[in-house]
Amino acid sequence: MQIISEGKAKIKVPRVVSKAVSKKMPVFYNPVMEFNRSLSISLLNNINKKDMKIALPLAATGIRGIRFIRELKRGKIGEIKFNDLDIKAFKFTMENLQLNDISKDVIVSCMDANLFMMNNEGFDYIDIDPFGSPNPFLETAIKKISRSGILAVTATDTAALCSAKPKACLRKYWSHSMWNEQMQEIGLRVLARRVQLIGAMHDKALTPIYSYAKDHYFRIFFLCEKGKQLCDKMMKKHLYFLYCTKCMARTLSKHNNEKCCGKTMDFAGPLWTGRLWDTKLARKISAEFAPKKERIFCSNIANEALIDAVGVYDLHKLSRLYQIKPPKPDDVISSLKKKKFKASRTHINNNYIRTNASIQDIVGIIKN
Ligand SMILES: C[S@@+](CC[C@H](N)C(=O)[O-])C[C@H]1O[C@@H](n2cnc3c(N)ncnc32)[C@H](O)[C@@H]1O
């Protein structure tokens, strides 16, 4: 055992013998996910919600919930419930709550996450943070998320969502992904649609308010709104993303068989083609992160959030394809902005940009 500090919490975690963090650990604690937890705190502190009923159905060591109790602003938490199927995780959570002098108004249980959620009336925030796919827990979480509640979903099965395993993507996410520079964004959008389709079955429209792809995982926070018409409107944005491998043109379509440069375009989807971020929230979150790396990550997201466009441009790939000297992202962005286009770096890769300009516009600007 060892005691570690993360944010304002200290927790007891199993000493990791091998370097790899895996689900074979006695109780799962992944230090790489510190940012993931910090971001959840920042998000909840920056939304207009008080007295929240919070559920952590897959709580592991309890670190996330303990940090919520320590770091969420006063009045944010009305009730908080920890749960994990693993008895060792349950014991760790109990000990860690004690270690942090948290004794009252907290409920800890040890059962299957679906059973735990079903046993409760409903929650304003549910955090689905499993190993691998969130699928087994989505339907219950969606049933139990309140009107105007926030559902947080993590997926670590990136191979399926990034099309390294196309059959798995079709089976698990009912969609086609894409194996190129678009894969992280496409993965996020495929996951978003999967969650939204289950939401629609329950007349709940789940709109992403903050999304990102990082390290080995995808994460989306959804705002839940009740209403059949909202769901119908949302589902109109489930389209195909078409991509020309010859010229890097892209388009959205109801169909997956359009042509460009004399050949059928590659396609991904159906996927969510609406916004991945709430612009104001993204700006507020980016103002909060002090360490340089995280601040840049979040400020790239805040800038991306201002651009209503699906897909990224890989400037290295573009320079190879069009045989031009690799341009600097910041130079391209400022030239695009001078021409009144929107443009930003991306949180996904340093050499990618997001813009509402077409490939012809970008190439024209770089060549001139
Ligand atoms: C990735 S860890 C959770 C990490 C945690 N949320 C954090 O921030 O540190 C996944 C946890 O889910 C638990 N788990 C797996 N299947 C479960 C199930 N069906 N019901 C409840 N818990 C489950 C595992 O025991 C493990 O502790």
Briefly say what this structure is.
The protein is of the alpha/beta class and about 375 residues long.
Molecular structure report:
The chain has 14 helices and 17 strands. Helix 8 (183-201) runs antiparallel to helix 9 (228-235) and helix 10 (279-286) packs antiparallel against helix 11 (292-304). The protein has 368 residues and is α/β, with parallel strands linked by helices. The chain starts with a strand and ends with a helix. Strands 5-4-3-6-7-9-8 form a seven-stranded mixed β-sheet, sandwiched between helices. The radius of gyration is 21 Å and the shape is globular. The chain has two domains: 2-236, Rossmann fold, CATH 3.40.50.150; 277-367, N2,N2-dimethylguanosine tRNA methyltransferase, C-terminal domain (Phenylalanyl-tRNA Synthetase, Chain B, domain 1). The model has no long low-confidence stretch (mean pLDDT 95). Bound molecules: S-adenosylmethionine.
Please give the structural blueprint.
Layout: E1 2-6, E2 9-13, H1 34-45, E3 52-56, H2 63-71, E4 77-83, H3 87-99, E5 106-109, H4 113-118, E6 123-128, H5 135-144, E7 145-155, H6 158-161, H7 166-173, H8 183-201, E8 204-214, E9 217-226, H9 228-235, E10 238-243, E11 250-253, E12 259-260, E13 263-264, E14 266-272, H10 279-286, H11 292-304, E15 313-314, H12 315-322, H13 329-338, E16 343-345, E17 352-355, H14 359-367
Parallel strand pairs: 3-4, 3-6, 4-5, 6-7
Antiparallel strand pairs: 1-2, 7-9, 8-9, 10-11, 10-14, 12-13, 15-17, 16-17
